[in-house]
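User: I'm curious whether this sequence folds into something compact or stays loose and floppy. Could you predict its structure so I can see for myself?
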Amino acid sequence: MIELPVLTLATIHFGIPLAYYFCMKSRYLNKPWNIKINENYKPKVTIIVPTYNEAKLIKQKLDNIYEQEYPRDKLEVIVIDSASTDGTPDIVKKWIEKHLDINLRLIVENERKGKAHVL
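Assistant: Here's the prediction. I'll summarize afterward.
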């Protein structure tokens, strides 16, 4: 006697959602969405480089970014220095003078706020 209500509830609980899923899948998921994708589209990208006493590594990192195969007009690099004492901003300024074809900005903070603050 109890089997009939259990079977009815199981059908309602599992059967109807499954039937609905398969109905919607056959109706909508198998059809193309007609989305046109431009394969040549490149979005603008900004790379933020937080620095603090990175004089030994900053030139190499900037060179790595420069070597990326990405359109220069779509790429922006922002170097934010957090009161370095080892001359990191001077190295970045010299690098900018040699690479005028890339959009690179240097922001120098007067007090140490940390890399997390920059991000």
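Summary: Residues 1-35 form one domain. The mean pLDDT is 87.
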